[in-house]
Specification:
The chain is α+β, with helices and mostly antiparallel strands. It is built from 9 helices and 8 strands.
Length: 296
């Protein structure tokens, strides 16, 4: 939201202009139980099931969750529902969950489990076999609702939205949404420039998107630690990924500034010699022990 206000706002405008107050009202009208019901359908508050260890579920807050985990902060207040409506407060999400939810919008409402492993085999002599995919679940069955969200996300980049900075030169449609995850809150009504804060206190810049918006083949979620604003920090990175995926355009890293060599104090022992240690480039590799299974 901004100081001048947004005027009359519908769902599409609330997306492309990032109108927080629209979602304050929407969360109160729905109630936290219904908000949680829909977010659960979209894959939030639980692991995605990706084939990686250590995945966390995030937090899908509710009166029951608060009573069990944050009872010192009192009962569940209407204000807890309000800030949950814009993804703040107790609500916690992983970048992978954001990517899965974005892919759901691109997949006409179907939630699919993300995967890194394509094939598996029982041992090195066995043939590779494709990993069985878990059937998708229905996140949303309303084509009209999905279309309204899609139009708002397209206008974020191609209309009067918050990510028009990545539009120049585009030859395909992007459906996106900028966001900010605040680390600290401001006091009073004074505006705060996140770039004026120490890095560990700066907002995280967020951007979710899929492309081409009219025939999606890729969905992405970008989170930049200390990025400040999603439009300026995260969205340009998503644009580069899309260009590489869709157009084959290589991502050229920024040149690294030359660094003056550091003088080594006299008497410093020479670096250790690891040339004969297994795993060092150029060192002879030992035979691998048999394994029960392998993936690729």
């Amino acid at each position: 939201s901004h100081r001048g206000g947004h005027g009359w706002t519908d769902l599409r405008k609330s997306i492309y202009e990032s109108v927080n107050t629209y979602y304050y009202r929407l969360a109160l009208d729905m109630g936290i139980a219904r908000v949680d019901e829909y977010l659960d359908r979209y894959g939030f508050g639980k692991v995605t099931g990706v084939d990686l260890s250590g995945e966390i579920a995030g937090i899908l807050p509710s009166p029951e969750w608060k009573a069990a985990n944050a009872a010192k902060q009192g009962k569940w207040y209407p204000g807890d529902t309000v800030i949950t409506g814009i993804g703040q407060g107790f609500w916690k999400v992983t970048t992978l969950q954001l990517a899965q939810g974005t892919a759901m919008l691109a997949n006409n409402g179907w939630v699919r489990r993300p995967h890194l492993v394509k094939d598996m085999r029982a041992d090195f002599a066995a043939p590779w076999a494709p990993v069985a995919l878990v059937p998708p679940s229905r996140g949303s069955a309303s084509a009209a609702h999905l279309q309204a969200v899609r139009e708002g996300m397209i206008a974020t980049v191609h209309g009067p939205g918050t990510a028009t900075n990545i539009r120049p030169g585009l030859t395909y449609l992007i459906a996106g949404k900028t966001g900010t995850a605040q680390v600290v809150s401001r006091r009073g009504s004074a505006a705060m420039n996140p770039r004026s804060l120490p890095m560990h206190l700066r907002h995280r810049g967020l951007f979710i998107a899929y492309a081409p918006a009219d025939a999606p083949t890729i969905a992405i979620a970008v989170a930049i630690e200390g990025g400040g604003y999603g439009a300026s920090s995260a969205a340009p990175i998503a644009r580069k990924v899309f260009d590489a995926w869709l157009l084959g355009k290589p991502v050229v890293p920024k040149p690294v500034e030359a660094v003056e060599p550091v003088a080594v104090p006299a008497g410093t022992p020479p670096p250790a010699d690891f040339s004969n240690v297994q795993g060092t480039p150029g060192a002879p590799a030992a035979a691998s022990p048999p394994m029960a299974g392998a993936t690729r």
